[in-house]
Every structure is written in structure tokens, then in C-alpha cells.
Design brief:
- The chain has 12 helices and 22 strands.
- It is of the alpha/beta class and about 475 residues long.
- It folds into 2 domains: about 325 residues, Alkaline Phosphatase, subunit A (3-Layer(aba) Sandwich); about 80 residues, Arylsulfatase, C-terminal domain (2-Layer Sandwich), CATH 3.30.1120.10.
- β8 and β9 form a beta hairpin.
- α7 packs parallel to α8.
- The longest helix is centred in the middle third of the chain and has 22 residues.
- The radius of gyration is 21 Å and the shape is globular.
Length: about 475
Amino acid sequence: MRYALLVLCVLAGCAGSPPRPADEKPFDSAAGKPNFILIFTDDQGYQDLGCFGSPKIKTPNIDRMAQQGRKFTDFYVAESVCSPSRAALLTGCYPPRAGVTRVLYESDVIGLNPARVTIAEVLRQRGYATACIGKWHLGHKPVFLPTRQGFDSYFGVPYSNDMRVDRQAAVADDCHFRQGMTLEKMRHDKVTHHWVPLMRNEKIIEYPADQSTLTRRYTEEAIAFIEKNKDRPFFLYLPHTMPHIPLFASEQFTGHSAIGPYGDVLEEIDWSVGRILAKLKALGLDENTLVIYTSDNGPWKLRPDKNGHVRGGWADPLRGAKFGVYEGGYRVPCVMRWPGRIPAGTVCSEIAGTIDLLPTFAHLAGAPLPTERILDGRDIRPLILDEPGAKTPHGLYCYYKKEGLAAVRSGKWKLLLPRKWKNKDLPMALYDLSADIGESNDLAEQRPDVVKRLTEMAKQFDAELQANKGDYGKAN
């Protein structure tokens, strides 16, 4: 069986994180199974929301989410690049265990192994309607698309918006070709960077996609899905294409922000959030829907373009950015809202992450957990609902980079393991994140006891994970 009530884990795999007790009852929602909406942006920095301190990007709707719900200050992704981060989110496993450890490209014939159980599959067995709207980036061949991974429908761009089209991809009979493109040209001409396909389910319906309309069209699709499924439980996964570069906003939002295109994009995404929350309110679904807003990794560290416009975001006060192992690459903004369930205006500073969403959603929906693979995520319902005395379930949180373990965090301590960066050998480093959130004061020499303890914990955990790694799925 693919599912059972318990996660099977060995001591090393748990690393201080207890499994769900055998006698624990599923969450009892008076209104029935809760709905889940997961809004996932691309390359958004930790500071790039008003409620996280942005001085110039205006996000009133997401800020209102925080006022009405809960802000998570120590929320993590499992890798600081796209595909591994998304695989971890959907499977509840660190990337090597999920089997996706690098960014996937349009030339690849690999993807998230269909044998991995996703959030959508867990919820669909409980009668949930499921939809993925936006950027997928876990394999674009048919066998890897959302429709083969537990989602009833898919609408979006299958990978990053700076990539190109797979000339062999399936095309709908009524596909809208733009920019002078034709099917013949798509099949045989040299492909162009930043010209990406827009898909519905498993076929291209527009090429090249009009990226300036994506956020608006994703929003329209999301609202239509909510309306269609208002009388049954649903899971909406909304991974936005941006603010990954190149940046595009609709005419309404172009020039809207004080900082240029990057701010325009985020302010349009904030508008999208407002539309979705308003629809939930209008349909009477507000108090039975958990809405989560977060990002797939930290921001690009980019210079302004030739016009002086900002292209990347800010991770302040964190150090680092996308691709790196410092907090700026892995720690992301997160806001959760569930009126009547999550106490308004609260803040959680306990360690939690995207790997925790699968077991948490399963628990809330009363669904059994998958057993085809050890889960690294844990049920963080007590943190979400601000239960008295709730603490992180992670005795050790791991920062994987490609196949290897690059850093670990336990409580306030973060240990960076010896690693390579741009062909340089970097030594071990220890930081007290409670006093040094910017990771500027290396305490490895002053606290050898902590270094030794975390090193042993890291070795133990990684040995178990390497013995139970996943693998990519391969298309025929």
C-alpha cells in the first residue's frame, strides 16, 4: 500500500523529530475538511513584503493576511534553487530523498519520479479537487506533469520563464501562436530564450506565452477553480512564474511600484492575493480555508539593468541569496491565514518549512500519510494554530545543496559544513542566529562543543538519507 497512518522512520531519519502518535486523531473541523490554497512565488526575498519590512514594495493584501493570521519568521525551503525546492515541498522530503537535486531544463528527459507521493495525491484520496496553476518545474514531459502527479488539472508554464520550448512537446489543435510563430517554425527553427510555452493540462495552448498577462490569467484560473469547487474540499497550488527574471507585469501594474519592474511584479501578485481572498469571503469559504503565502527560495543577487531598474529582491537582514547556503537563500517569508483557527496578528519564530506542509495537510484532512518513502517533514499544526507551548518538531533542520549536506540548524545554532563555492574550499563555520541573524560572527573556534555535537548529528542524519535516496523519473 502507498499509504498508511504512520511515517516509518529510523532514529537517524527523525533527528529529534517525533512521528505522528498512533493514537492521534485526525483534525476535526466543524465545517468539514478544510480547503488549502498554497501561493508560491519564485525567487522572492525574505524582506520583499511590507509585513517583513520592505520599505518600498507595497503589499497591502498580504500584510492584511499577516494581520488576520500568522507570520512565520523562521520558515525554510529545502534548497535555494527552483526544482529541488519544489520537489521537497510537494513530497515532504529533502531533495536527495525526493530524487530531484538540480534545476531541470527544457532539454531534460527526467523529472519528479511518479512513484513519489505528492500533497495532491494525499488529498485527492480524501475527495479533494486539486489544481496546479503556474510554474511546475518538475519535468515537462507528459509523465512528469501535474496531471500525472495528483492534480486534476494544470494551467501554466512548465518551467522557468527564462528557458525555451521543447520542440517535440504536444500542441493543442487550437494553439495560439504569437510573435509570428507557427507550428512548423516551433518544430524546426532555432528556439529562443525567454520564449516559453503556456500549457493547459498536457498540451501547449499558447506559444510564446504572453508573460505580461500570466499573473492576471493565473488569478482568473484560480478564481474559476474555487468557484467550481466551492461545495467540496479543494487544494489549489498556485506557484507564480515570477518574480523570477525576466520580469513582466500587466499594463495596469507596469510603473506601479517605486522601485521598478521587480516591485511592479510583486505588487501585481499582491493584487492577485487580494482577489483570491475576496472570492473566498464572497463564497463563505473564508473560515474553512487555510491560505499560505511563501517563496521557493531567496532572491537573485542582481545588478540593476541598463535603465537602472531593480531586477532582484532583498533578503535583509539575512546574509546571502539564491544559490547560496546562507539564510538568504533558504529562509523565506511566510504568512498563513485561517480566520477562526489561526489567532490574528501572531508571529511564530519556531523552525518550520515547506517539507512540513504534506504531513500537516494530511493531518488536517484526515488523510493517511504515504509510506513509499521516509518523510522528513513533520506535522506543524500546533505551530500554525498557536497551541500553548508549541515548539518546532525539528531537532535538526538540514540545508542540502545538490546531493550533499551543506549546513544544519539546531535551535539557535547553525553549522556550515566544509564545502566548495565557486571552486573555493570553504571551512566550517558556526553562527548563533538568535544574536547574529546576518551570519557575520563565526563562533566555531569559541564553541567546539557545539561544532562537535552538530557535526555528529549531521553525519548521522546524512548517512541515513544517503542510504535511502530517491531517484529521478525518466521519460521514454
